[in-house]
Amino acid sequence: MIRKTFICAVLLIFSCSGILNAQNTFSVTLDEVNNGKIKVEPAIPADGKVAAGTELVVTTKADKGYVLDAVYYSVKGMWGDMYHESMASPYKVIVDQDKKIGASFIEKDEVSHLVVAQNIEYAKPGVKQLKYDVFAPDGARNLPCIVIIHGGGWVSNSEDIMRGMARELTKNGKYVVFSIDYRWAGTRDGDEVGNTMADLIGDVFGAIAHIMEHAAEYGGDPTRIAVTGDSAGGHLSAVAGTMPNKIGDGGFGVTEGVFEFMPSYIPVNKTVGQVRSEMMAAIKAAAPSYGVFSSARLNHNSEDPKADESWKEAIAPLSNIPNVEERAVPHYLTRGTKDGLIGDEDVTVYMDALVEAGQRVQYVQVGGAGHAFFDWKPDERTKATFKKYGIYYINEMEAFFNSVFYPTN
Residue 56 in contact with residue 85, Cβ under 8 Å? Predict the structure, then answer.
Protein backbone atom coordinates (compact mmCIF):
# COMPACT_ATOMS: atom_id res chain seq x y z
CA MET A 1 0.00 0.00 0.00
CA ILE A 2 2.82 2.38 0.89
CA ARG A 3 4.64 1.49 -2.37
CA LYS A 4 1.50 2.25 -4.45
CA THR A 5 1.01 5.54 -2.66
CA PHE A 6 4.66 6.47 -3.30
CA ILE A 7 4.40 5.63 -7.02
CA CYS A 8 1.17 7.66 -7.36
CA ALA A 9 2.81 10.61 -5.61
CA VAL A 10 5.83 10.43 -7.92
CA LEU A 11 3.57 10.25 -10.98
CA LEU A 12 1.59 13.22 -9.69
CA ILE A 13 4.77 15.25 -9.21
CA PHE A 14 5.96 14.46 -12.74
CA SER A 15 2.49 15.25 -14.09
CA CYS A 16 2.36 18.62 -12.32
CA SER A 17 5.93 19.33 -13.43
CA GLY A 18 4.89 18.74 -17.02
CA ILE A 19 1.99 21.15 -16.64
CA LEU A 20 4.24 23.77 -15.12
CA ASN A 21 6.83 23.31 -17.86
CA ALA A 22 4.14 23.68 -20.50
CA GLN A 23 3.06 26.93 -18.89
CA ASN A 24 6.61 28.25 -18.75
CA THR A 25 6.83 28.60 -22.53
CA PHE A 26 4.45 29.65 -25.26
CA SER A 27 4.46 29.25 -29.01
CA VAL A 28 5.32 32.37 -31.02
CA THR A 29 5.09 32.29 -34.81
CA LEU A 30 5.75 34.93 -37.43
CA ASP A 31 3.12 35.66 -40.08
CA GLU A 32 4.17 36.12 -43.68
CA VAL A 33 4.87 39.79 -44.34
CA ASN A 34 4.35 41.51 -47.68
CA ASN A 35 5.76 44.85 -48.87
CA GLY A 36 8.13 45.17 -45.94
CA LYS A 37 10.13 43.35 -43.30
CA ILE A 38 10.03 42.83 -39.56
CA LYS A 39 12.73 42.06 -37.02
CA VAL A 40 12.02 40.49 -33.63
CA GLU A 41 14.49 40.77 -30.73
CA PRO A 42 15.39 38.52 -29.08
CA ALA A 43 15.07 36.20 -32.05
CA ILE A 44 12.39 33.51 -31.97
CA PRO A 45 13.98 30.04 -31.44
CA ALA A 46 13.70 27.51 -34.25
CA ASP A 47 11.06 25.53 -32.34
CA GLY A 48 9.01 28.69 -31.73
CA LYS A 49 8.98 28.18 -27.95
CA VAL A 50 9.56 31.37 -25.97
CA ALA A 51 9.77 31.71 -22.20
CA ALA A 52 6.69 33.16 -20.54
CA GLY A 53 7.15 36.82 -19.63
CA THR A 54 9.70 37.50 -22.37
CA GLU A 55 9.46 40.98 -23.86
CA LEU A 56 9.83 40.90 -27.63
CA VAL A 57 10.61 44.11 -29.51
CA VAL A 58 9.28 44.20 -33.06
CA THR A 59 10.72 46.70 -35.53
CA THR A 60 9.60 47.19 -39.10
CA LYS A 61 10.96 48.41 -42.42
CA ALA A 62 8.72 49.19 -45.35
CA ASP A 63 9.62 48.51 -48.96
CA LYS A 64 9.95 51.47 -51.32
CA GLY A 65 6.60 53.11 -51.99
CA TYR A 66 5.00 51.58 -48.87
CA VAL A 67 4.52 52.64 -45.25
CA LEU A 68 3.62 50.80 -42.08
CA ASP A 69 -0.09 50.14 -41.65
CA ALA A 70 0.34 48.40 -38.30
CA VAL A 71 2.63 46.06 -36.42
CA TYR A 72 0.70 43.50 -34.42
CA TYR A 73 0.33 40.31 -32.50
CA SER A 74 -2.74 38.11 -32.74
CA VAL A 75 -4.29 35.50 -30.47
CA LYS A 76 -7.15 33.07 -30.91
CA GLY A 77 -10.45 34.67 -29.97
CA MET A 78 -14.19 34.40 -30.36
CA TRP A 79 -14.01 35.33 -34.06
CA GLY A 80 -10.76 33.69 -35.11
CA ASP A 81 -7.54 35.69 -34.89
CA MET A 82 -7.97 38.79 -32.72
CA TYR A 83 -5.42 41.52 -33.40
CA HIS A 84 -3.61 43.88 -31.05
CA GLU A 85 -1.92 46.59 -33.07
CA SER A 86 0.14 49.73 -33.19
CA MET A 87 0.59 52.11 -36.08
CA ALA A 88 4.10 52.83 -34.83
CA SER A 89 7.29 50.78 -34.59
CA PRO A 90 9.09 49.54 -32.49
CA TYR A 91 6.31 47.59 -30.78
CA LYS A 92 6.72 45.61 -27.55
CA VAL A 93 5.00 42.24 -27.16
CA ILE A 94 4.87 40.35 -23.85
CA VAL A 95 4.75 36.58 -24.26
CA ASP A 96 1.92 35.43 -21.98
CA GLN A 97 0.07 33.07 -24.34
CA ASP A 98 0.48 31.59 -27.81
CA LYS A 99 0.83 34.47 -30.26
CA LYS A 100 1.41 35.30 -33.88
CA ILE A 101 3.47 38.36 -34.75
CA GLY A 102 3.48 40.28 -38.00
CA ALA A 103 3.09 43.60 -39.74
CA SER A 104 0.91 45.10 -42.45
CA PHE A 105 2.16 47.62 -44.99
CA ILE A 106 0.14 49.80 -47.35
CA GLU A 107 0.95 52.07 -50.27
CA LYS A 108 2.31 55.43 -49.18
CA ASP A 109 -0.34 57.29 -51.18
CA GLU A 110 -3.05 55.85 -48.92
CA VAL A 111 -1.93 58.00 -45.98
CA SER A 112 0.10 60.80 -47.55
CA HIS A 113 -2.80 63.21 -46.96
CA LEU A 114 -3.00 62.48 -43.24
CA VAL A 115 -1.71 63.62 -39.88
CA VAL A 116 -2.40 60.84 -37.36
CA ALA A 117 -2.40 61.12 -33.57
CA GLN A 118 -2.68 57.74 -31.88
CA ASN A 119 -3.83 56.65 -28.41
CA ILE A 120 -5.20 59.91 -27.03
CA GLU A 121 -6.36 59.01 -23.52
CA TYR A 122 -9.73 60.43 -22.51
CA ALA A 123 -10.59 58.47 -19.35
CA LYS A 124 -9.70 55.51 -17.18
CA PRO A 125 -12.79 54.53 -15.18
CA GLY A 126 -11.61 50.93 -14.81
CA VAL A 127 -8.62 48.74 -15.62
CA LYS A 128 -8.43 49.73 -19.26
CA GLN A 129 -7.13 53.05 -20.50
CA LEU A 130 -9.77 54.55 -22.79
CA LYS A 131 -8.41 56.23 -25.88
CA TYR A 132 -9.03 57.37 -29.41
CA ASP A 133 -7.06 57.97 -32.60
CA VAL A 134 -7.28 61.11 -34.70
CA PHE A 135 -7.06 61.18 -38.50
CA ALA A 136 -6.82 64.75 -39.75
CA PRO A 137 -6.27 65.90 -43.34
CA ASP A 138 -2.99 67.78 -43.58
CA GLY A 139 -3.74 71.46 -42.99
CA ALA A 140 -7.22 70.84 -41.56
CA ARG A 141 -8.98 73.95 -40.31
CA ASN A 142 -12.43 74.08 -38.70
CA LEU A 143 -13.68 70.91 -40.43
CA PRO A 144 -16.71 68.88 -39.30
CA CYS A 145 -15.84 65.88 -37.12
CA ILE A 146 -16.81 62.25 -37.65
CA VAL A 147 -16.66 59.94 -34.62
CA ILE A 148 -16.33 56.21 -35.39
CA ILE A 149 -17.30 53.58 -32.80
CA HIS A 150 -15.94 50.07 -33.39
CA GLY A 151 -17.83 46.79 -33.17
CA GLY A 152 -16.97 43.43 -31.64
CA GLY A 153 -20.04 42.25 -29.77
CA TRP A 154 -19.41 44.90 -27.08
CA VAL A 155 -16.67 42.57 -25.72
CA SER A 156 -13.76 42.71 -28.17
CA ASN A 157 -11.71 44.79 -30.62
CA SER A 158 -10.45 48.34 -30.29
CA GLU A 159 -10.48 51.55 -32.29
CA ASP A 160 -7.68 50.17 -34.51
CA ILE A 161 -10.17 48.04 -36.45
CA MET A 162 -11.79 51.16 -37.95
CA ARG A 163 -8.66 52.86 -39.30
CA GLY A 164 -9.43 51.84 -42.88
CA MET A 165 -12.73 53.68 -42.68
CA ALA A 166 -11.05 56.66 -41.02
CA ARG A 167 -8.52 56.95 -43.83
CA GLU A 168 -11.21 56.79 -46.49
CA LEU A 169 -13.39 59.43 -44.83
CA THR A 170 -10.50 61.91 -44.78
CA LYS A 171 -9.29 61.53 -48.38
CA ASN A 172 -11.34 64.42 -49.73
CA GLY A 173 -10.09 66.77 -47.01
CA LYS A 174 -13.56 67.58 -45.64
CA TYR A 175 -13.55 65.85 -42.23
CA VAL A 176 -11.43 65.22 -39.18
CA VAL A 177 -12.11 61.66 -38.00
CA PHE A 178 -11.88 60.35 -34.44
CA SER A 179 -11.93 56.57 -33.89
CA ILE A 180 -12.78 55.76 -30.27
CA ASP A 181 -12.44 52.84 -27.86
CA TYR A 182 -14.65 52.00 -24.86
CA ARG A 183 -14.87 49.50 -22.02
CA TRP A 184 -15.94 45.95 -22.82
CA ALA A 185 -19.13 44.59 -21.27
CA GLY A 186 -18.85 42.37 -18.21
CA THR A 187 -15.40 41.59 -16.83
CA ARG A 188 -13.63 41.15 -20.18
CA ASP A 189 -11.30 44.08 -19.38
CA GLY A 190 -10.29 42.54 -16.06
CA ASP A 191 -12.52 44.75 -13.92
CA GLU A 192 -13.76 43.10 -10.74
CA VAL A 193 -17.22 44.60 -11.14
CA GLY A 194 -18.67 43.95 -14.57
CA ASN A 195 -19.26 46.84 -16.93
CA THR A 196 -22.88 47.44 -17.92
CA MET A 197 -24.19 48.73 -21.22
CA ALA A 198 -24.86 52.03 -19.47
CA ASP A 199 -21.12 52.18 -18.67
CA LEU A 200 -20.21 51.62 -22.32
CA ILE A 201 -22.63 54.31 -23.44
CA GLY A 202 -21.16 56.63 -20.81
CA ASP A 203 -17.75 55.97 -22.34
CA VAL A 204 -19.02 56.91 -25.80
CA PHE A 205 -20.42 60.18 -24.50
CA GLY A 206 -17.23 60.75 -22.49
CA ALA A 207 -15.11 60.28 -25.61
CA ILE A 208 -17.26 62.72 -27.56
CA ALA A 209 -17.05 65.24 -24.71
CA HIS A 210 -13.25 64.96 -24.76
CA ILE A 211 -13.19 65.25 -28.55
CA MET A 212 -15.36 68.37 -28.44
CA GLU A 213 -12.96 69.89 -25.91
CA HIS A 214 -9.90 69.19 -28.08
CA ALA A 215 -11.24 69.05 -31.66
CA ALA A 216 -9.80 72.44 -32.62
CA GLU A 217 -6.28 71.18 -31.85
CA TYR A 218 -6.64 68.78 -34.79
CA GLY A 219 -8.46 71.16 -37.13
CA GLY A 220 -11.96 70.04 -36.18
CA ASP A 221 -15.11 72.02 -35.43
CA PRO A 222 -16.60 70.77 -32.13
CA THR A 223 -20.04 72.15 -33.00
CA ARG A 224 -20.44 69.94 -36.10
CA ILE A 225 -20.25 66.22 -35.38
CA ALA A 226 -21.44 63.05 -37.10
CA VAL A 227 -21.33 59.59 -35.53
CA THR A 228 -20.91 56.22 -37.20
CA GLY A 229 -19.98 52.69 -36.23
CA ASP A 230 -20.56 49.08 -37.18
CA SER A 231 -22.19 46.10 -35.47
CA ALA A 232 -21.96 46.79 -31.70
CA GLY A 233 -20.64 50.19 -32.77
CA GLY A 234 -23.75 50.50 -34.94
CA HIS A 235 -25.84 50.26 -31.79
CA LEU A 236 -23.61 52.67 -29.87
CA SER A 237 -23.47 55.23 -32.69
CA ALA A 238 -27.27 55.11 -32.99
CA VAL A 239 -27.44 55.76 -29.23
CA ALA A 240 -25.03 58.68 -29.61
CA GLY A 241 -27.16 60.11 -32.39
CA THR A 242 -30.59 59.68 -30.84
CA MET A 243 -29.99 59.83 -27.07
CA PRO A 244 -27.57 62.57 -25.97
CA ASN A 245 -30.60 64.08 -24.21
CA LYS A 246 -30.26 61.18 -21.74
CA ILE A 247 -26.87 62.41 -20.50
CA GLY A 248 -27.09 63.21 -16.80
CA ASP A 249 -25.95 62.41 -13.27
CA GLY A 250 -29.24 60.91 -12.06
CA GLY A 251 -27.95 57.35 -12.40
CA PHE A 252 -29.12 54.47 -14.55
CA GLY A 253 -31.98 52.67 -12.81
CA VAL A 254 -30.93 53.86 -9.34
CA THR A 255 -34.24 55.69 -9.07
CA GLU A 256 -37.24 53.96 -10.60
CA GLY A 257 -37.91 55.26 -14.09
CA VAL A 258 -34.71 57.36 -14.26
CA PHE A 259 -32.17 56.19 -16.83
CA GLU A 260 -29.34 58.63 -17.42
CA PHE A 261 -25.85 58.14 -18.82
CA MET A 262 -22.92 59.68 -16.98
CA PRO A 263 -20.06 60.43 -19.40
CA SER A 264 -16.79 58.89 -18.27
CA TYR A 265 -15.16 62.23 -19.03
CA ILE A 266 -16.48 65.68 -18.19
CA PRO A 267 -14.37 68.80 -18.92
CA VAL A 268 -13.34 70.47 -15.68
CA ASN A 269 -14.97 73.76 -16.64
CA LYS A 270 -18.35 72.29 -17.58
CA THR A 271 -21.34 70.79 -15.83
CA VAL A 272 -23.06 67.60 -16.94
CA GLY A 273 -25.97 69.74 -18.08
CA GLN A 274 -23.71 71.87 -20.27
CA VAL A 275 -22.18 68.76 -21.83
CA ARG A 276 -25.66 67.42 -22.55
CA SER A 277 -26.87 70.65 -24.17
CA GLU A 278 -23.73 71.17 -26.24
CA MET A 279 -23.64 67.57 -27.46
CA MET A 280 -27.32 67.61 -28.41
CA ALA A 281 -26.63 70.64 -30.56
CA ALA A 282 -23.36 69.35 -32.01
CA ILE A 283 -24.37 65.85 -33.17
CA LYS A 284 -26.09 66.46 -36.48
CA ALA A 285 -26.04 63.09 -38.27
CA ALA A 286 -25.69 59.36 -37.63
CA ALA A 287 -24.64 56.48 -39.87
CA PRO A 288 -25.00 53.25 -37.86
CA SER A 289 -24.04 50.17 -39.90
CA TYR A 290 -25.58 46.71 -39.40
CA GLY A 291 -26.34 47.52 -35.78
CA VAL A 292 -28.74 46.35 -33.07
CA PHE A 293 -31.50 48.86 -32.45
CA SER A 294 -34.30 47.00 -30.64
CA SER A 295 -34.46 46.17 -26.93
CA ALA A 296 -35.35 42.58 -27.84
CA ARG A 297 -31.75 41.95 -28.92
CA LEU A 298 -29.93 44.02 -26.32
CA ASN A 299 -28.48 43.15 -22.92
CA HIS A 300 -28.19 45.79 -20.19
CA ASN A 301 -25.46 43.63 -18.56
CA SER A 302 -26.57 44.74 -15.13
CA GLU A 303 -26.65 42.38 -12.14
CA ASP A 304 -29.01 44.69 -10.27
CA PRO A 305 -32.01 42.61 -9.15
CA LYS A 306 -34.29 45.53 -10.09
CA ALA A 307 -33.26 45.31 -13.75
CA ASP A 308 -36.19 44.51 -16.02
CA GLU A 309 -37.30 45.13 -19.59
CA SER A 310 -37.42 48.88 -18.99
CA TRP A 311 -33.64 48.79 -18.56
CA LYS A 312 -33.31 47.34 -22.07
CA GLU A 313 -35.71 49.93 -23.48
CA ALA A 314 -33.48 52.62 -21.97
CA ILE A 315 -30.48 51.51 -24.07
CA ALA A 316 -32.43 50.86 -27.29
CA PRO A 317 -32.26 53.51 -30.04
CA LEU A 318 -35.56 52.23 -31.45
CA SER A 319 -37.31 53.26 -28.22
CA ASN A 320 -35.69 56.69 -27.97
CA ILE A 321 -35.93 58.37 -31.38
CA PRO A 322 -36.53 62.13 -31.09
CA ASN A 323 -39.23 63.73 -33.16
CA VAL A 324 -37.71 65.85 -35.92
CA GLU A 325 -39.38 68.94 -34.45
CA GLU A 326 -37.39 68.40 -31.26
CA ARG A 327 -34.08 67.55 -32.90
CA ALA A 328 -33.19 66.49 -36.42
CA VAL A 329 -30.80 63.53 -36.72
CA PRO A 330 -30.55 62.37 -40.36
CA HIS A 331 -29.57 58.68 -40.62
CA TYR A 332 -27.66 56.62 -43.17
CA LEU A 333 -28.15 52.88 -42.59
CA THR A 334 -26.29 50.00 -44.25
CA ARG A 335 -26.50 46.22 -44.14
CA GLY A 336 -25.02 43.44 -46.25
CA THR A 337 -27.60 41.15 -47.87
CA LYS A 338 -25.60 38.10 -46.72
CA ASP A 339 -25.32 39.30 -43.11
CA GLY A 340 -26.02 36.30 -40.88
CA LEU A 341 -26.20 38.34 -37.66
CA ILE A 342 -28.37 41.33 -38.56
CA GLY A 343 -31.48 40.73 -40.65
CA ASP A 344 -33.21 43.11 -43.04
CA GLU A 345 -36.15 43.31 -40.63
CA ASP A 346 -33.82 44.48 -37.82
CA VAL A 347 -32.85 47.54 -39.83
CA THR A 348 -36.22 48.08 -41.51
CA VAL A 349 -38.08 48.44 -38.20
CA TYR A 350 -35.60 51.15 -37.15
CA MET A 351 -35.90 52.87 -40.52
CA ASP A 352 -39.70 52.87 -40.26
CA ALA A 353 -39.57 54.33 -36.75
CA LEU A 354 -37.23 57.10 -37.92
CA VAL A 355 -39.62 57.92 -40.76
CA GLU A 356 -42.54 57.94 -38.33
CA ALA A 357 -40.67 60.50 -36.22
CA GLY A 358 -40.14 62.67 -39.31
CA GLN A 359 -36.40 62.00 -39.49
CA ARG A 360 -34.61 61.82 -42.83
CA VAL A 361 -33.25 58.32 -43.39
CA GLN A 362 -31.54 56.42 -46.15
CA TYR A 363 -31.26 52.62 -45.95
CA VAL A 364 -28.81 50.92 -48.32
CA GLN A 365 -28.49 47.15 -48.66
CA VAL A 366 -25.09 46.04 -49.90
CA GLY A 367 -25.55 43.17 -52.32
CA GLY A 368 -23.46 40.10 -51.51
CA ALA A 369 -21.81 41.54 -48.41
CA GLY A 370 -21.78 39.76 -45.07
CA HIS A 371 -21.17 41.24 -41.63
CA ALA A 372 -18.36 43.67 -40.73
CA PHE A 373 -17.34 44.76 -44.25
CA PHE A 374 -16.27 48.16 -42.88
CA ASP A 375 -13.63 46.55 -40.61
CA TRP A 376 -9.91 46.66 -41.31
CA LYS A 377 -7.44 44.05 -40.09
CA PRO A 378 -3.93 43.05 -41.19
CA ASP A 379 -5.05 39.80 -42.84
CA GLU A 380 -5.53 39.76 -46.61
CA ARG A 381 -9.08 38.39 -46.47
CA THR A 382 -10.35 41.33 -44.41
CA LYS A 383 -8.50 43.79 -46.63
CA ALA A 384 -10.04 42.23 -49.75
CA THR A 385 -13.55 42.47 -48.25
CA PHE A 386 -12.93 46.09 -47.32
CA LYS A 387 -11.75 46.83 -50.85
CA LYS A 388 -14.71 45.04 -52.44
CA TYR A 389 -17.49 46.52 -50.32
CA GLY A 390 -16.17 48.97 -47.75
CA ILE A 391 -14.53 51.64 -49.87
CA TYR A 392 -17.46 52.26 -52.20
CA TYR A 393 -20.03 52.48 -49.42
CA ILE A 394 -17.80 54.63 -47.24
CA ASN A 395 -17.72 57.07 -50.14
CA GLU A 396 -21.52 56.86 -50.29
CA MET A 397 -21.65 57.50 -46.55
CA GLU A 398 -19.42 60.54 -47.02
CA ALA A 399 -21.81 61.83 -49.68
CA PHE A 400 -24.58 61.56 -47.09
CA PHE A 401 -22.48 63.46 -44.55
CA ASN A 402 -21.74 66.07 -47.21
CA SER A 403 -25.49 66.63 -47.67
CA VAL A 404 -25.64 67.55 -43.98
CA PHE A 405 -22.45 69.55 -43.55
CA TYR A 406 -21.87 70.87 -47.10
CA PRO A 407 -25.40 71.31 -48.48
CA THR A 408 -25.88 72.70 -51.96
CA ASN A 409 -28.88 74.93 -52.63
Answer: no
